[in-house]
Fold this sequence. Notes:
By secondary structure, this protein is of the alpha+beta class. It contains 9 helices and 14 strands. The protein has helices spanning about 10-25, 40, 90-100, 115-125, 165-180, 185-190, 200-205, 265-280, 295-300, and strands spanning about 5, 45-55, 60-65, 70-80, 105-115, 130, 145-150, 155-160, 210-215, 215-225, 250-260, 285-290, 310-315, 320-330.
Amino acid sequence: MVSLAIESVNQPEIMALIEALDTYQKPLYPAESHHGIDFSALSQDNVIFIVARSADGAAVGCGAIVLEDSYGELKRMYTAPSARGRGVARTILSALEAEASRRKVSVFRLETGYLQPEAIALYERAGYRRRGPFGDYTNDPNSVFMEKPSLPPGYTLRLARLDEASEISTVIGRSAREVGSQDYSSAVIEGALTGAFGVDTQLLRDQTYFVIEYSSILVAVGGWSRRRTLFGSDSRSGREPELLDATTDGARIRAFFVHPEHTRLGLGTAILCASESAARAEGFSAFEMMATRTGRHMYQRHGYTGDTSIQHPVGDSIAIEFFPMSKRDQLTQR
Ligand SMILES: CC(C)(COP(=O)(O)OP(=O)(O)OC[C@H]1O[C@@H](n2cnc3c(N)ncnc32)[C@H](O)[C@@H]1OP(=O)(O)O)[C@@H](O)C(=O)NCCC(=O)NCCS
């Protein structure tokens, strides 16, 4: 059994743990592939640093999360060799994630090295998926980049089922009418709900659409597609069901709607992260979408660009302003 606490890094015993981690990692990679964080940076206010201590009080493991603007980055995860194989790192990782979620971090990211299979396995078992470089990192064949969305307590994310189309439609309707009303008139929203917004059952059949539940009720929906259609429900004309080519096309990011009582909790971000991960797993490294005025804030926050709007007709002399947006990963090959 270990006990965990947020502690200062400025203790000789903790510094020795971190030095042991450096001693282990340094011979594995060339100097330019080391991205350790130094003691003074670990002492800053934007860092959560957790120490695991054994029953006799000895520090046997540590880990940190650096709170960046739009994500939290895991750093300095280490378990002393004498304490390995007892779940210490898993416990530290979940404590860090819980504390970071409490501070509204909605995505966890990390960089590790390809010669550390035990670390990669720990993160994969905890739900992390590989991605491209983020923040100031650049493509480095020695690096493995991973991420995982975070959800507030009580919320669960899963793939949508085909028999849920009507509940999904209810979430879309409430979200469009209530959340969307900050940006569009009701005439525009009602027009959009006849085809531009709504359920695309192709996504449900393709298993590329996610839902988030709270107390068994659907509160957020959204997904991605390997097909050309960029937006719109089953009833929109001009659908393009042909499959995209992951090597040249951007995966489509599709139909994000969050129930008005559950916005700004990171649910949209969690679905975006799950969608990008699933598309990356099929070889996509670029993403495209048609964003609403409301949605573009979230997409910009996650690296999407596109400032030029288009007017999409949604009725007689009524049009909705949309923003075509896109993003491209710099993917590491290994
Ligand atoms: C767009 C939408 C899905 C976002 O869902 P959400 O779960 O509230 O988004 P998140 O909580 O993940 O937001 C992540 C970040 O995006 C930005 N953001 C999200 N909504 C924002 C808003 N209304 N204004 C400004 N920034 C916003 C913020 O940076 C936010 O982080 P913060 O809360 O820590 O400041 C939701 O507003 C919605 O359902 N809108 C109506 C339907 C719609 O327009 N869908 C988009 C289709 S393209």
